[in-house]
Specification:
Elements lengths: L1 H5 L3 H6 L4 E7 L2 E8 L4 E9 L5 E8 L2 E5 L17 E4 L12 E5 L1
Protein name: Wound-induced protein 1
Pfam families: WI12
InterPro entries: NTF2-like_dom_sf, Wound-induced_1/12_sub, Wun1-like
Length: 108
């Protein structure tokens, strides 16, 4: 994959396309999900955007199932066992690549 993304694999670089299937935003976090069905690759980009619309951070996941949770602010100290982190987004394309993929939880 590194050769593809860095452009050193000329044949693959011409045929791989980042075609978004979904784009969602949660405050300053933007999540873009897509897949390359020809290669059986799913991908997720998570961007952090500042108040001027400039992307300040990029996270990229390939063939990974991602669940995004939002941490609930509380004025009282709470133990981890009582911390409620609702799921606000789940990837849907990772299961379509026809193979088992790892799962991650991203807290925002």
């Amino acid at each position: 994959m590194m050769q593809l993304l860095t452009g050193t694999d000329n044949i693959a670089a011409e045929t791989f396309q980042f075609v978004p299937q979904s784009i969602d935003a949660f405050g300053s976090t933007v999540i873009v999900e897509g897949c390359d069905q020809f290669r059986d690759i799913s991908w997720i980009h998570v961007w952090t955007v500042d108040s001027h619309g400039v992307i300040t951070q990029v996270r990229e996941y390939f063939n990974t199932s991602l669940t995004v949770t939002r941490f609930v602010n509380s004025a009282k100290p709470v133990s981890v066992t009582f911390l409620h982190c609702p799921s606000v987004w789940e990837s849907s394309l990772a299961n379509r690549v026809g193979k088992s993929v790892p799962g991650l939880v991203l807290g925002i």
